[in-house]
Here is the input.
Amino acid sequence: MDIGIGLPAAVRGTDGATIVEWTRAAEEVGFSSVGVLDRIVYDNYDPIPVLGAAAAVTDIRLLGTVLLAPFRGGGAVVAKQLASVDRLSLGRLTVAVVTGDREDDYVASRADINRRGRAQDQMLEEMCQIWRGVAAGGTGSIGPLPAQPGGPPVLVGGNGPATIRRVVRHGAGWIADGGGPEAFRRTADLVLSAWTDGGREGVPYLAAIGHFALGRDGRLAARRYLTDYYGYRGEAAAEAIAERALTDTDTLRREIDGYAEAGCDELVLFPCSADPDQVDLLARATLTAETAR
Here is the structure.
């Protein structure tokens, strides 16, 4: 199983130089990819420019984890933005999309949260057509074409029948939230069965995300960040998410082993602190001695 690392672009107050430093350090120590998170009503960077910046300073794989596609308007604009990142990165982009459940983001973007599933279906269909070079209206196709023929691989996030249907129809695979290995295994089994039943060739790419904060103040940093970031879900739910954060190496390694045994192809761990030392701490805890600095 590969281990990717999230960039601290959703940690309040992180400056641009720190994000660039993280990206370079992640490549140097040997993480498989760098990921980003997406919100509107929060003190975070928009993920698409962050991916473009990462493409410019490293050769690491870029994982757009996770884009909340429905509130970003029509699929044409998003398809053009992501195709541009794919071209700039020479084909290193993988896209992960979810519908999201943050009502304030939908209010701010003037999108209808009650139609987000339908909007996601329409956007995925439109994006796939644009990436294949299908003409849009009477003026021709929307460029640039992605570096990867047919467009960057798309991972669909979420749970339930609608998510699995989108994976089979549009996706290269599925990505889970931080619910843990057992929850991952249950939905992964459903995805694999639906993939085969739907006549898709090969196997879907199965990924998951988690949150970490290591070192002496790791637990404090995790609680402070996660109860703030997920506070819209209510105090009890936010506290439960914070409790699941990986804040010591033994728990972290057990979680990694659990995901690997459940068939996960890549686990992307997002930081609760922007301290660049977190890159090295995570590398020493998860990567081989030859790769970690």
User: Anything to note?
Assistant: The longest helix spans residues 181-197.
